[in-house]
């Protein structure tokens, strides 16, 4: 069946930076599934009306329509059970715990590093929308949130367990990457795509891991267009 | 086969507070295994010579001698495979990642809350040894490390993913507790056993979880002697 992914794009249609879409892209690559991506911008709500949803990722697989990045990962595990990325039982529970860490500690720290670069990477017609919605969420201006030095400090703290674990195994999920790696990578790829700011110390294990992640699955992420290419 | 656990004790032989021993106690209870504990004090190295090890927990199970809390948990999963606590593959990897968080972020924050209470809970003859070894490890006096208010702030930060996850499921590992719960509980039980300091906000999900954990497995932890009883 043909798989389509509605994928957030920026000021250049090739610039794809959503952390949630990257989780799904990596999961599809992990399972060797072909995908056609549809570039989507923040305000194109009507394009997603068929899914009864208002943001990406939205995935269609034949007649199936699935929304929410983690639900899509779980759907792909059910529909294509070889090489599971999420798992079941304790494996799933422990991934959900790490997902909380990615979304509540790691991603907010990354946001502080790249907030203004992210704004600049967004399509000019979407910037007012982005600023308004995010500033309402944070209760602060993007300029006040943007603080790369403090962001790097918070990120380093949040990545203490990750750096320790990456001394024990090349990927978070073991000898090869899987769901835990894709959750973290999605957020780091988001920041890397829109910004040339330093995210982590070169000597931290997570820096070498990120380079490995750019190369896995035929460099699906490494080949992606970033602000460096524009 | 008879199982014996060498278990750290304090100024009262009934005061058992090692976070690493508590992980093992909970794992044994999880599997419905009877255990005889042997009270052990920090400097009784010769009592562990048979294990070629110098700290607890040490577990003997018939002729088997196993050291290191996590290795003991893995041993118990292999020897008594019903109701696994650690799991295998991605499940194991993700538990190892959470273990890093418990040992590198959560436990150090707890230590700042209870450092001086912990010293007072230790047997008088062991206090010099404890102070010397810990102060060398931290490069600071126990009095300088002890800062309950800062500790609670760091703990709250480190528990952000845990509190979020405990809104989704009653235990970290799902509907019933397992390895992830025992790792976190071991450290919180350690602090709770030696100190009456407030550890977490009563309204945080982790507070209700801790009470549930005191009650599981026939209240093996809830019945334990703490400084409140002495």
Automatic annotation (TrEMBL), chains A, B:
PANTHER family: GLUTATHIONE S-TRANSFERASE OMEGA, PTHR43968. It holds the Pfam family GST_C_7. This is Glutathione S-transferase family protein. Residues 8-84 form the GST N-terminal domain. It comes from the Bacteria.
């Amino acid at each position: 069946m043909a798989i389509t992914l509605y994928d957030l794009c920026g000021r250049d249609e090739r610039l794809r930076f959503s952390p949630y879409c990257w989780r799904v892209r990596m999961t599809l690559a992990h399972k060797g599934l072909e995908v056609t991506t549809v570039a989507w911008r923040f305000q194109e709500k009507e394009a997603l009306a068929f899914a009864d949803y208002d943001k990406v990722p939205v995935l269609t697989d034949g007649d199936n329509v699935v929304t929410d990045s983690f639900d899509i990962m779980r759907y792909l595990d059910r529909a294509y059970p070889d090489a599971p990325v999420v798992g079941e039982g304790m494996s799933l529970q422990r991934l959900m715990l790490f997902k909380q860490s990615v979304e509540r500690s790691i991603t907010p720290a990354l946001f502080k590093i790249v907030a203004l670069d992210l704004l600049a990477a967004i399509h000019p017609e979407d910037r007012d929308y982005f600023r308004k919605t995010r500033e309402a969420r944070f209760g602060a201006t993007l300029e006040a949130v943007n603080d790369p030095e403090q962001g790097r400090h918070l990120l380093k703290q949040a990545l203490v367990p990750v750096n320790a674990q990456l001394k024990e195994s090349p990927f978070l999920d073991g000898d090869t990457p899987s769901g835990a790696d894709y959750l973290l990578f999605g957020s780091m790829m988001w920041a890397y795509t829109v910004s040339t700011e330093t995210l982590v110390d070169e000597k931290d294990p997570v820096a070498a891991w990120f380079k490995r992640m750019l190369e896995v699955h035929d460099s699906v992420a490494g080949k992606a267009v970033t602000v460096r290419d524009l």
